[in-house]
Amino acid sequence: MSDTLAVPASLAVRNMLGDTLGREVTVNIGNPLTQKDLPTATVAIYVDSSNRVAAVLGMDLKLAAFAGAALGLLPVGGAEDAIDDKELYPNLAENVGELCNILTGLLNKEGAPHVKLDRVVLPGESIPNDAQAHLLALGRRIDLTVDIQRYGSGTFSLSLA
User: What is the 3-state secondary structure (H, E, C) of the chain?
Assistant: First the structure.
């Protein structure tokens, strides 16, 4: 058994998002989230069996809103309104939280340490310092621009501890 997680391939991210959202998803190498993105980002914190931060996923407001709407089969207009209002509406937040839990599958592989979703930090909530540091650090990470068919695109950043 390996004691480290592997950074998922962009193809794995695309396939998992496409399968979960039930629509075409394209991914391209993108820029990482920055400090200025964090107040409106949705951040998922994954921990290992010792409750140490193992990975941190960040989605900018656009991706969180579009993914939340797509998962709930909601009209794109609601996601666009949320983006314009710079907040993630409760129905979209609930769906994104579920998506973050499903995305744990990107990290859990046979022979690797098991991780679980610890919590989801929604826009406007305080991101713990250690999670914020992991999300913004260089190193073992993948940064993508994700486009969800008929919804829109946004930034996906996953950083491993």
Answer: CCCCCCCCCHHHHHHHHHHHHCCCEEEEECCCCCHHHHHHCEEEEEECCCCCEEEEEEECHHHHHHHHHHHCCCCHHHHHHHHHHCCCCHHHHHHHHHHHHHHHHHCCCCCCCCCEEEEEECCCCCCCHHHHHHHHCCCCEEEEEEEECCCEEEEEEEEEC
